[in-house]
Specification:
Elements (H helix, E strand, L loop, with lengths): L13 H11 L5 E2 L14 H7 L16 H13 L9 E4 L2 H12 L5 E6 L4 H8 L3 E9 L3 E3 L1 H7 L4 E7 L9 E2 H14 L2 E5 L13 E2 L10 E6 H4 L8 E5 L2 H14 L4 H12 L1 H22 L7 E2 L7 E5 L6 H12 L1 E2 L1 E2 L10 E5 L4 H9 L4
Parallel strand pairs: 1-14, 3-4, 3-6, 6-8, 8-10
Antiparallel strand pairs: 2-11, 4-5, 7-9, 10-11, 12-13, 13-16, 15-16
Amino acid sequence: MFSSRLNTSAEVNRITRRLGEHRAAGTPILDLTESNPTRAGIEYPAAAIARLLSDARSLSYEPEPAGLPAAREAVARYYAERGESVDPGRILLTASTSEGYAWLFKLLADPGDEVLVPRPSYPLFDYLAALESVRMVPYTLVYHGAWAIDFDTLRNAITPRTRAIVVVNPNNPTGSFLRRDEYEILVRLCRDNDLAIISDEVFSDYALTDDARRISTLAAADEVTIFSLSGLSKIAGLPQIKLGWMVVNRPEAMARLEFIADTYLSVSTPVQWAAAGLLALRESIQTQIHARVRRNLQTLQARFGPESPMRALNVEGGWYAIIQVPRVRSEEEWTLDLLDRNHVLVQPGFFYDFEAEAFLVVSLLTPEEIFVRGITGWST
């Protein structure tokens, strides 16, 4: 009766099941996986946000497939404040980055075609691709004191059915940025194989250090066909106010995307009129997030320093951190043991498609008191 696009399973994994048992028993859990800023103790200018969303212009429906000009101009100003010149005519609004991916898969791929994605990375890609009947093919990120693209695996992954390469910049959960030398190789590969680059830049405002070798956005790049994705969810810490966008550098691609967007017209009018104001409010929200992430990272590095059998891997940006643990047990066993003995919740690396054991992932957005108690209280 149902489509075979998505092979869903009702089976609950052992970690989720065990967590449910602890919560049902009333066990207080130190949750080090909290990545929702609206639940992480971030203070929002609630009155200002409410005023922006009550603009009377929202009562008039103006179906603009690419988005209202005022909202697109607001996004262009955001890039200008970062030193990037982006024509508002190259910006197309979506309800979310996830929707942006769905539209790009529709644009670029026929059923059964392939898109290359980094490993490790966020697990949502597989579901987004399956819903569009597109196949995700991984390429590897390797760690040698810093994360980098393994171009051997990337080259070997390209087939006649490959349509695009996804770059998550910075990556989630590794926190690694794309470097200029890596970008030059990507451009050559895309030219040689007629591929597009999809650059997911939702965390790009959250760099933890400066590095001249790093590329923070491809929004103004023009060497090959590039789609740069971002949105309010991370930039302004507002995942509940649905507004994403993509910057498109080829007119034909933009025209075809407008046709797709016109079919859905998914972006709400209130958020479009509020876009300029919401982007203007991002500084106060980002300042809190930056401070939280840096302090939690310091706690993590102090706990798992050179003398520890575990180590916190280098992180360049974003909200996540990775702890490499001894391979004396599986990641699942590590996670369950921490939950049972210490009442600490972390995520195993296999949630993010790590190729090898043993890694644990924590969110640096976790409220500091919980993070300190959760990290310093480990008994291993």
